[in-house]
Amino acid sequence: MKTIQKGFTLIELMIVVAIIGILAAVAIPSYQNYTLKAKFTEVTAAVSPFKLAVELCAWSGDCITSGAITGLSNGTQGIPDSQSSQYLASVSVGGDGTITATATSAGGLNGETFILTPGYTSGQPVTWAPSGTCKTRTAGAIC
């Protein structure tokens, strides 16, 4: 008589479990970094109205003294007051137009900062140089 094999052998099941384990070991850290980047997007997006206000102030000349941006702060020259949200602790504007957005310490974020420093040349658009602790995280940059 012939015997008919039914089901999977133990080795076949062990191979499938090993493959799933390898995929999970690669996917979980990538997913965690992805979710941190998604949360930090709220912080980077929050600087948009502040950037626009600094650019408009520079374009109109209202905050230009001796060829440099000066005299700015939250709530003046059309710059919004600081705001906060679930992952955004604050946004502040320095006297020279430097915008500092700080993340909260929630959801895997640890108070990282996103800093935009304006560059101004008369008759040219304002240029922005990004920096901050979000670029130096040990697990990889999140901004």
Structure description:
There is one protein chain. The protein is 35% helix and 19% strand. It has 143 residues and is α+β, with helices and mostly antiparallel strands. The strands form 2 sheets. The protein has a 4-stranded antiparallel sheet with strand order 3-4-5-6. It has a two-stranded antiparallel sheet with strand order 1-2. The termini are far apart.
Question: How would you briefly describe this protein structure?
Answer:
With 143 residues, the protein is of the alpha+beta class. Helices cover 35% and strands 19% of the residues.
Overall SS class: alpha+beta
| Element-level helix/strand string | HHEEEEEE
Counting DSSP H or I runs of 4 or more residues, the number of helices is 2
End-to-end CA span: 68 Å
Oligomeric organization of the protein chains: single chain
Tell me the major beta sheet: 4 strands, antiparallel
Helix content: 25-40%
β-strand percent reads 15-25%
**Mean pLDDT across residues:** 89
- Contiguous uncertain segments of 5+ residues: none
Give the helix/strand layout.
Elements: H1 10-46, H2 48-60, E1 64-65, E2 68-69, E3 88-93, E4 99-103, E5 113-119, E6 127-131
Antiparallel strand pairs: 1-2, 3-4, 4-5, 5-6
What are its keywords?
alpha+beta; 143 residues; 19% strand; two-stranded antiparallel ribbon; 35% helix
